[in-house]
Specification:
Elements (H helix, E strand, L loop, with lengths): L5 E5 L6 H15 L7 E5 L5 H8 L5 E4 L16 H6 L4 E4 L2 H6 L4 H13 L3 E6 L3 H5 L3 H12 L11 E5 L13 H18 L2 H6 L1 E5 L7 H5 L6 E4 L6 H8 L4
Parallel strand pairs: 1-2, 1-8, 2-3, 3-4, 4-5, 5-6, 6-7, 7-8
Helix pairs in contact: 1-2, 1-11, 7-8
Bound molecules: 1,3-dihydroxyacetonephosphate (13P).
1,3-dihydroxyacetonephosphate binds next to β8.
EC number: 5.3.1.1
Keywords: Cytoplasm, Gluconeogenesis, Glycolysis, Isomerase
Family: Belongs to the triosephosphate isomerase family.
């Protein structure tokens, strides 16, 4: 089963309009001679989505929100909706990022509500899951992930799964320079794929893209992408440097 690789740059709370436009323009240029067909997605801050969308227009780069609220509009101070993302030129969103879970206390129920809202409104969604260092050291990695996946996907129909990807981001590897080894990540990705089979069916699991995130860099992307169940990467720090992200987009598996 061949799954089209998906490389995502999550810019987190970085870039002013000017910086975002420069970065997006450089990445767009780097897309021109990618070795083979692969999907590139950028998740800039909401404040620059519209400007970035003008810069990447026609390049095939997909634009995503870093989070999304469930309703189309309303009294939700500080939130953005799928309709607003679409209006700014995006068609995708992340949910359940560990920074949302840990710093802003979003629980599985809220992540699920966001995910279903985004899917219902037509977005391509990435559900992020991942264990903390404490959970890994306590031998709870797989049970934590199983629960995040089960609760996160609750009420998501089989038909919606073709607009869904999963990102495995071990919390201990985010921004720390510690990366899961290819084998460590493969073990978890294969587990997650088995869980998708249990929740849906094998065909859905075979087609589901499962991305790895956590200190992905130019010097480890090739070994990560060589793993059979790693279908892409969700990149933070290295996505803010055009040359690094371009090398990641050009991974050789
Ligand atoms: P880093 O690549 O900076 O570790 O961040 C990973 C991440 O959280 C991407 O969403």
């Amino acid at each position: 089963m061949s799954r089209r690789p998906l490389l995502v740059g999550n810019w987190k709370m970085h870039t002013t309009v000017v910086e975002a436009c420069q970065l997006a323009a450089a990445i767009r240029q780097g897309c021109a001679d990618l070795p083979e067909e692969r999907d590139i997605m950028l998740a800039p801050p909401a404040t620059v989505l519209s400007e970035v969308s003008h810069i990447v227009h026609g390049s095939g780069i997909i634009l995503a929100g870093q989070n999304v609220c469930w309703g189309p509009q309303g009294a939700f101070t500080g939130e953005i909706s799928a309709v607003m993302i679409q209006g700014a030129g995006g068609n995708a969103a992340l949910v359940g990022h560990s920074e949302r879970r840990q710093i802003f206390h979003e629980d599985d129920a809220m992540v699920n509500r966001r995910l279903r809202g985004g899917l219902d409104q037509g977005l391509l969604m990435i559900l992020c899951v991942g264990e903390t260092l404490e959970e890994r050291e306590g031998g709870q990695t797989l049970s934590v992930l199983e629960e995040q996946l089960r609760a996160g996907l609750s009420g998501v129909s089989i038909a919606q799964c073709d607009r869904l990807a999963i990102a495995y981001e071990p919390v201990w590897a985010i921004g720390t320079g510690l990366t899961a080894s290819g084998e460590q990540a493969q073990e978890v990705h294969s587990f997650l794929r088995d869980q998708v089979t249990l929740l849906y069916e094998k065909n859905v699991a075979d087609q589901m893209r499962i991305l790895y995130g956590g200190s992905v860099k130019p010097d480890n992307i090739d070994q990560l992408m060589a793993q059979p169940d790693i279908d892409g990467a969700l990149v933070g720090g290295a996505a803010l440097d055009a040359a690094s992200f371009i090398r990641i987009m050009q991974f050789k598996a």
